[in-house]
């Protein structure tokens, strides 16, 4: 029987893909059904890994995806994939674009709105969910990871949609939100009760480089953040009360463990923690670039926090358990100070995890499978030692 402490251990979602799956995709010699069978085999292994360590909430490792944000925008009418987009349609102040351009790497393919947006009706996320659900036993639950609704807008701004289709951000966001609500309804009807939206873009509003870049071209970061918060509110306004919504805010996790931004949550805490109607905030706290725990004082009393204290980027050095425990207690102290509750009650609202996934991009982080397992085990050990 799982202990209550195990419920305080979580992970972000993506896991390292097995090499045989990566090889099969690269060779492109398998039929769709043959590739699906390989994916099923890999997912079965991922589920068993999570089960063996003691996790109670399961993902499929995102093994059917190339990137963590796949599955939503590529399933909408009105969105068109652009293989070789011109550099002029990108907002070069966005931290990941800055990093690529500084290395002489041109922006990769993207997705632009060329027609009125609507959901296609069949959900790729539901297909992923149904397979995992069929593999779980009593007491085991699925967590589905979803794309952030503003993903392509921040990258492209006014170029994200055709002006012949939408006259304003508000019109564009309204249809994105409607499609997102429909997606959530399909997942709910399939039995999904736990979703996690992965959004590194909100953390970009903590990066001074982007704030300066926007100011330099006469754009208001505060106004845009407000628009995104309104978009989230509209996306989530019809979700059922027994569907848990998590929001993961990290600083980028590209292949080979590259991150893209730095800056503490104090830039966004008062607005994001209080105005986006998420139940759980998954926050990156594995390095000093994430700042201090002080912004946690702004987390409302009815919201939970998952502290990403263990890095998923590198196997070594391994974090010290006692230092991790001290960090958890420090976070509880600050949350209690902000909410007026006891530190013990604040501690009940905290869980722990790696700071991000292990394979946000299919090539994965600069860590091997043994290192990944040790990190996941450390998270579980931390949860059991605190709770």
UniProtKB/TrEMBL annotation:
Q: Which InterPro entries match?
A: Met_Synth_C/arc, UROD/MetE-like_sf
Q: Which Gene3D superfamilies match?
A: 3.20.20.210
- Pfam families hit by this protein: Meth_synt_2 (PF01717)
Residues of the Cobalamin-independent methionine synthase MetE C-terminal/archaeal domain: 169-367
What are the protein's GO molecular function terms? 5-methyltetrahydropteroyltriglutamate-homocysteine S-methyltransferase activity; zinc ion binding
> Which terms under GO biological process does the entry name?
methionine biosynthetic process
Q: Record's PANTHER family?
A: METHIONINE SYNTHASE, SYNTHASE, VITAMIN-B12 INDEPENDENT, PUTATIVE (AFU_ORTHOLOGUE AFUA_3G12060)-RELATED
Q: What is the name of the protein in this document?
A: Cobalamin-independent methionine synthase MetE C-terminal/archaeal domain-containing protein
The lineage, from the top, is:
Eukaryota, Fungi, Dikarya, Ascomycota, Pezizomycotina
């Amino acid at each position: 029987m799982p202990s209550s402490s195990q419920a305080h251990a979580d992970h972000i979602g993506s896991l390292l893909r097995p090499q045989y799956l990566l090889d099969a995709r690269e060779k492109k010699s398998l039929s769709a059904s043959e590739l699906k069978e390989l994916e099923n085999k890999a997912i079965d292994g991922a589920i068993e890994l999570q089960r063996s360590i003691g996790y109670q909430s399961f993902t499929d490792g995102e093994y059917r995806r190339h990137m963590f944000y796949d599955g939503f925008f590529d399933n909408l009418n009105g969105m068109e994939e652009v293989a070789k987009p011109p550099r002029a349609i990108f907002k070069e102040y966005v931290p990941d674009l800055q990093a690529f351009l500084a290395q002489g790497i041109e922006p990769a393919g993207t997705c632009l709105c060329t027609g009125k947006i609507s959901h296609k009706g069949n959900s790729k996320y539901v297909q992923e969910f149904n397979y995992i659900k069929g593999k779980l036993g009593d007491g085991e639950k699925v967590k589905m990871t979803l794309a952030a609704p503003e993903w392509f807008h921040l990258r492209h701004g006014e170029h994200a949609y055709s002006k012949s289709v939408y006259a304003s951000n508000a019109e564009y966001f309204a249809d994105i939100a409607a499609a997102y609500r429909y997606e959530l309804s399909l997942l709910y009807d399939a039995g999904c009760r736990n979703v996690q939206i992965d959004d590194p873009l909100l953390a970009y509003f903590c990066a001074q480089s982007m704030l300066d870049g926007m100011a330099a071209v006469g754009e208001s970061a505060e106004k845009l953040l407000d628009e995104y918060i309104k978009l989230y509110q509209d996306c989530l306004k019809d979700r059922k009360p027994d569907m848990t919504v998590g929001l993961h805010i990290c600083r980028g996790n590209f292949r080979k463990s590259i991150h893209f931004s730095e800056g503490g949550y104090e830039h966004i805490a008062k607005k994001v923690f209080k105005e986006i109607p998420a139940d759980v905030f998954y926050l990156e706290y594995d390095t000093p670039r994430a700042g201090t725990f002080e912004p946690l004082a702004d987390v409302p009393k009815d919201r939970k926090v998952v502290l990403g204290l263990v890095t998923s980027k590198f196997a070594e050095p391994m974090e010290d358990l006692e230092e991790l425990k001290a960090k958890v207690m420090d976070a509880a102290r600050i949350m209690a100070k902000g909410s007026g509750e006891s530190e013990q009650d604040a501690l009940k609202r905290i869980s722990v995890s790696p700071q991000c996934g292990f394979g946000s991009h299919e090539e994965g982080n600069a860590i091997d499978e043994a290192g990944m397992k040790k990190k996941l085990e450390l998270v579980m050990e931390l949860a059991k030692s605190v709770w």
